[in-house]
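Changelog note: in this version the structure field was regenerated for every chain. One regenerated record is shown below for reference.
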Amino acid sequence: MTFNCLLTGVGGEGVLMAAAVIARAASIEGHKVGGIQLHGLAQRGGSIPTHVRFGGDFHSPTIPRGEADLIIGLETIEAARECRFADKRRTSFIIDTYTLKPVYARLLGDPYPTAKQVKQMISPFSKKAIILDASGIAREKLGSALYGNAMALGVAVGAKLLPLSQKSMEKSLEATLPRDFAQNLAAFRMGLAYGKKL
């Protein structure tokens, strides 16, 4: 059976890196892997949805509407934007409470949804939702919010929402991020421990 994972956030958060880690880990485990990235606006802090599909037999790299098994949102509102790919019977969400208000919202002082409001927004589409301050924890423990994405991946594996092994994910982290492997590994393992407690 094909597993469909959608990752989303804004440019600069490491969405593409997180997707590459998942894709490589799936390949290490012998799965057929496909996916697609929309990253043209990433340089400007725009949305960056990325689809990763593995296992089973699929013919399109794009996840069909309502068929995501897991949505990982590295920015709070970006996860809510992708609900069209979710279905309450199958889709779990992992959402980092990191927020990056759009420029116009900041300039005009528009309100931005809280994590609690986002949880209410996704409720009709989610089987399970884990909302945590991965970026904040990473900043406090490892010195940079950028490790929040590796922590979110650890949460997904630890909570058994991403059907890939710890060993494959750690091999993939090392291959994908050789220069900063130690810190990303630490973040991944923090997330793994967090996820196992859920």
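Spot check on this record: The mean pLDDT is 93. The two ends are 25 Å apart (CA to CA).
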